[in-house]
Sequence to fold (487 residues):
Amino acid sequence: MIDKLKELSKDTAIYGVSTVIGRLFGFILIPFLTQFFTRDQMGVYGNIYAYIAFLNIFYIYGMDAAFLKYFSVAKKEDERDIFSTPYIFIAFTSLLFSVILLYFRTDLAAAMKVPEHYWRLLYYMVFILFFDTLSLIPFAHLRLQRKAGKFAAIKITNISVNLIANIVFVWGYRFDIDAIFISNLLASVIAFLLLLPEIMKYLHFRIDTVKLKRMLNFALPYLPAALASVVVQVIDRPILTYLTNDATVGVYTTNYKLGISMMLYVGMFQYAWQPFFLNNAKEKNAKEIFARVLTLFMIIGSVLVVGISLFVNDIASFEFMPGKTLIAQRFLEGLPIVPIILLSYLFHGMYINFTAGIFIQEKTKYFPVVTITGAAVNIAFNLWAIPKWGMMGAAYATLASYMVNASLLFLFAQKFYPVKYEYRKIFFIFLLIAVTGSFYYYLLGSGQLYFITKILMLAAFIVFLFIFKIIQKSEIITTYKVLIGKK
Fold:
């Protein structure tokens, strides 16, 4: 098992470099943008990017997942067909979708509640979608080939170009929010160009219709699930736009991104996890490994949730210049949503872990049941809670939907691929999070929540992980051996 955990930890670390830098880019960019743009402008930016995430699912329609599935078990002589068939088909459909969106851009902008003087941003939106889609399968191919270094290098280049361009256009030239979209488009084009050698190496201009049909049969049932999954992630912003205003969306978007550490932690895990469980599904102790991975994920994730929740206010309100806080003062009222978003992503990480059984047993038809239910809960909760609690209602809707997704997928996965997870440890992790959270809000209400108190609370949380034997000395030794490469 140590060898397998070492393999996962190595890939996670390499993918994590690009993911961490990407999320850090977001962490740097958002405070940077709040110094230059109004809450309304940040709201327009957040709303359009929510639609980009949603439309991206239509552009790829699950073919990246189908590629991962079939390329991972392909014979050497079939690899070029399995790469070329979905890639050419996706390139054609992406071009078709882009032409349609551009033709109906004014109607689309009005439906999206984008202010008329920002309708021009839809041009950038469409071209970002097009070039990002052309890069998805090549990136997936790098993951399957375990070319994590090359994957990370291209991702880091993409991120660096995006960040530098934003600084130049916003700070140097004082562009409007167009700068955000121009920078993204420039970075997307460069990433595509860097992937061209990988694309041309495996591409031949022929579509195998038999393989295409098989891949579509796998991918299309995944489409409703992917759409519903994105609804859970981003529908809160469009609904907030309709029920409140751009300023509220701007504050919400800004503080949502302060949950960056959990986002990057879950993201780096997800990149490594899918190839890992597909490649190790036939191991005799596969289920034992998968159970152990979930516990390790939960231990690290819970410390992040508690630690960031305790100190996020100190970080966001840090004055780097007189009168200048890390997050501009006009956005700080949204900080209470951060702990809720962090906890939501912890549940999302559990959901990602449970996908192993569904993929291994080829039961992807159950993804729509799970995610559509979660999306329905999200939409209904948003519509009910936002008029009552504003942006806090949107945050609670996110948490509720991620909890539903994780719970339902767990039930289906256990039905077809039962794994004996370490339930006692997971229960006590959630118990400690709940107790710590209750204590936090009690002290906050009593005015006794000092910085030293927060440090003691985090230390107590970690100590109780040992007291309840969630973490044990033998496991630390095992993990240490994994990290240093010894058996």
Q: What stands out?
A: The longest strand covers residues 319-321. Residues 2-34 form the longest helix (33 residues).
